[in-house]
Design a protein that fits this description.
The chain is mainly α and 366 residues long. It has one domain: Alpha/alpha barrel (Glycosyltransferase). The chain is 45% helix and 2% strand. The protein is built from 14 helices and two strands, in the order H-H-H-H-H-H-H-H-H-H-H-H-E-E-H-H. A two-stranded antiparallel sheet has the order 1-2. A hairpin with a 5-residue loop joins strand 1 and strand 2. The chain is globular. The N and C termini lie far apart (42 Å). The N terminus is likely disordered.
């Protein structure tokens, strides 16, 4: 985990109060007010070429901004969004990838999702198809018995991990790749090997050594656990909040049923560790990334009120909205001023993740 992980964005934040269970979902107007303030901050800090933070992240942050704004109802014709889309188009490589010098999987995946949101009338069909083919080329084709098999890392030569793989799955599905496509199904097998669930879907040694509190949750990677700071003294790997939500999201997006043991185990772990005041297993690190996977997974699960292990019901959309509202700065941005290692000291990235997360706090119209 020593490679740059700009898009994993870590954030330190104070513990904030949450509304009591039973509160109504956030009003769309209230969500829009926060998003519009954040968008105005980004509008003022967009580079002349249409990008945000391109010198450090290539097209990655720009893609997250675009995907979030489009999901929030901003038009692809909005000058800020149009300029950013033009920048992303110019970032497309001959091999179909959308990247600069590093993080090819991350940046191509999020850029593909941005173009998916903007793809009215099939404008970006060819670009999206080529990007999905590029992504498939990054997937490990190791022997099925090898724990790397089906996983995706930063690029073809990198060690696969769950964070990269969950972005990969979401991007392929957004591109219209069928859920039963071998690339998707093989990725799910790798994700299963990241879960503390010994048995048919995970034969890795660490899963058999999981402590009770880790059962059902997912960890960053099943590969080379000896160098993992999340390793337990007896050789198990600790479950992590953002990774568990990312894994659950991937299962549900790819059509794995709610009665599947992998889904049931992940949900059980989440019920026992439900919180918005920290990223379980990481403390105050990784909160924005955590909120992002939390929101997507909870929306996919479809429980408007989520009961924790003590049977306390949570209006998770309202709780998440309240947290982000309190974290927004006066200038409209979100930022981690203390942690530069993972990128969210850059307010462009933190703000982009916040906008994307907020897009899941308003219930879909029935």
């Amino acid at each position: 985990m020593n490679r740059p992980r700009i898009l994993i964005g870590f954030f330190c934040a104070a513990v904030v109060g949450l509304p009591s269970a039973g509160a109504a979902d956030p009003d769309a107007k209230d969500v829009k007010a926060i998003v519009d303030r954040a968008a105005e901050y980004l509008r003022k800090h967009q580079a002349a070429d249409g990008s945000w933070s391109a010198k450090t992240t290539g097209p990655g942050v720009t893609a997250v901004v675009v995907a979030g704004l489009l999901r929030q109802g901003y038009s692809a014709d909005d000058p800020m969004v149009a300029k950013a889309l033009d920048y992303l188009e110019k970032s497309v490589k001959k091999d179909g990838g959308i990247y600069d010098k590093a993080l090819a999987n991350y940046t191509t995946s999020v850029a593909l999702m941005a173009f998916h949101e903007a793809n009215t009338g099939g404008k970006y069909d060819k670009l999206i198809k080529n990007a999905s083919l590029f992504l498939k080329g990054l997937q490990s084709d190791a022997d099925p018995k090898d724990p790397r098999s089906g996983g995706v890392g930063y690029d073809k030569s990198s060690r696969p991990d769950l964070s990269n793989t969950q972005f990969f799955v979401e991007a392929l599905l957004a591109a219209g790749v069928p859920k039963d496509d071998p690339a998707v199904q093989n990725a799910l097998k790798f994700i299963g090997r990241c879960q503390n669930l010994p048995g048919e879907t995970n034969d890795q040694p660490f899963a058999k050594k999981a402590k009770p509190e880790d059962l059902g949750g997912l960890t960053y990677t099943p590969i080379d656990p000896d160098d993992s700071k999340h390793k337990t003294p007896d050789g198990g790997l600790r479950s992590l909040g953002a990774m568990t939500y990312g894994g659950l999201k991937s299962f549900l997006y790819a059509g794995v049923g709610k009665d599947d043991p992998r889904v049931q185990a992940a949900v059980k772990w989440i019920r026992a560790h439900y919180t918005l005041t920290e990223n379980p297993g990481m403390g105050q690190a990784g909160l924005f990334y955590y909120y992002h996977t939390f929101a997507k997974a909870m929306a996919a699960l479809g429980e408007d009120q989520f009961a924790d292990a003590k049977d306390v019901k949570h209006d998770w959309r309202q709780e998440l909205f309240a947290v982000l509202k309190k974290l927004q700065k006066e200038d409209g941005s979100f930022v981690n001023p203390t942690d530069r290692a993972f990128g969210e000291a850059d307010p462009n990235l933190a703000t982009a993740f916040a906008i994307l997360t907020l897009s899941h706090t308003t219930p879909p119209k029935k």
